[in-house]
Amino acid sequence: MTRVEMIVMVTRALGIQVEPDADLTMFTDAKEIPEWAKPYVAAAYKSGIVQGKENGQFAPDAIATRAEAVTMIMRMLELMKK
């Protein structure tokens, strides 16, 4: 599963509101994020589920690692507590 696919699934599962005109300027590779996924990535970033890579990229097509999945699940659980 890619990072972008995981973000879309988590965002949908939490019922996070997405906005069609997503601002992704925080990621240097924003142009590589598929148009259909941009609102979900922006919403996940805004809610704190994802922060991107150390190099400022989101890396949408990279395979999500177990560590990334655990981190997102932990952040997801924190959001559910609120």
TrEMBL record:
It comes from the Bacteria. Residues 24-82 form the SLH domain. It holds the Pfam family SLH. PROSITE patterns: SLH. This is SLH domain-containing protein. It comes from Paenibacillus herberti.
